[in-house]
Amino acid sequence: MSAPADFQELQDLYSKVLRDLARNPVHRGRLENATASARGDNPMCGDRVDLSLMVADGAITEAMFQGRGCEISQASAALLTELVRGKSPAEARALGEAVARLARGEEVSGDAPELERLAILSVVKKFPSRVKCATLAWRALDAALAGVKETSSE
User: Are strands 150-152 and 47-56 parallel, antiparallel or unpaired?
Assistant: First the structure.
């Protein structure tokens, strides 16, 4: 049984947006004077994300990443660096929790515009092995904010 045409069109659109985010990230690089940083590593597939943050006055003022891996992991990292700027660590962690729920196919409530932007990552719900790809950068965010330098998703 094939998926309805509108569902397939939506998946195609998400694929194009994910591809563009992965190939043309705005905030790729390393912050020289980062106040928090961590590496997320998925040894099963080779995805890696090095996240660097500048946290000042209770907010994330800068976020950048370097990495390698599949389009999903790199697009998710690009979204993270875009969406956590100006957020408190608690707000940024809440976005990470939303990503994990979306990736697992669970409902996420709220009307924050960031949730609409993150909904693109819900395409991995049909592929459980890709949930780790979508959440890798967000686990690195948690680690960086906790002062841990490396996290692994074995």
Answer: unpaired
Q: Model pTM?
A: 0.85
pLDDT digits (tens, 9 = 90+) for 106-128: 988 887 888 888 988 888 888 88
Given a contact cutoff of 8 angstroms between Cβ atoms, the answer to whether 60 and 54 are in contact is yes
Q: Residue 50 corresponds to which tokens in the numbers above?
A: 């090095």
- For residues 102 and 43, is the Cβ–Cβ distance under 8 A? no
Q: Measured in Å, how far apart are the chain's first and last C-alpha atoms?
A: 34
Beta bridge partners of 59: 56
Cα 25 from Cα 47, distance rounded (Å): 16
Give the span between the Cα atoms of 50 and 88, in whole angstroms: 20
Phi, psi of 14 (to 5 degrees): -60, -40
CB 45 within 8 A of CB 52: no
Which residue's entry shows tokens 């940083």?
A: 37
